[in-house]
Amino acid sequence: MSEQLTLSAETRERAGKGASRAVRREGRVPAVIYGQNKEPVQIHVEEKALVKALSNGHFMNTVVMIDVGGEATRTLPKDVQFHPVTDRPLHVDFFRIGEHSTVTVEVPIRFTGEEESRGLKRGGVLNAVRHEIELICDAAEIPDEVVVDLAGYDIGDSIHISQVTLPKGSKPAITDRDFTVATISGSAAGESAAASGDTGEDA
Question: What pLDDT digit, counting tens, does each position of 154-169 carry?
């Protein structure tokens, strides 16, 4: 489960490009907290702390407590804007959530069982159709990853979401189709061998 993160923040009295530039010159990043039918709150956070949080790879599916003057607000990051050249964070949107709110997050996929996949052992290639899966889950139980086990899959097989064991309490956000997560295809060498009748296995 993703760990909870806390970022200290200060309120911004002024909005606009000029005010945002002034904040950034001080090593801060403008941000906004919105949602739950409450007024948006303009804030800024320390750039170094934000960059460190972004580096963990799970920032967008991590519950972030925004501490403003000792008062904490539970949020989920919704958008981070980056400078097109320097990649410095320019602005962050935080969405207010309750402790057990139902949230939609994109969770990274990790493939396992490659050594037990017949297709991969025969020289097949794993084609990851998706690198993340959009899940609906409890805000207090956001998973770090979705594990997809490749054991038993052969060349030509497709792995659909219905065949994936999702983390407890999670369900796919896409429900109108059994979408493909990955396929195993034959390599060029393997396909040539198959065409010539040479499978590399004893008769």
Answer: 999 999 999 999 999 9
* DSSP state at residue 13: S
Strand partners for 138: 102
What are the contacts of 69-73 at 24+ separation with CB within 8 A? 69/10, 69/11, 72/6, 73/33, 73/41
Which has the closest alpha carbon to 119: 155, 159, 160? 155
pLDDT digits (tens, 9 = 90+) for 124-153: 999 999 999 999 999 989 998 999 999 999
Tell me if 103 sits within 8 A of 97, measured CB to CB. yes
Average pLDDT over residues 170-176: 96
Q: From start to end of the chain, where are the E strands?
A: 5-11, 28-35, 38-46, 64-68, 71-82, 89-96, 102-112, 125-128, 132-138, 146-149, 158-160, 171-172, 180-185
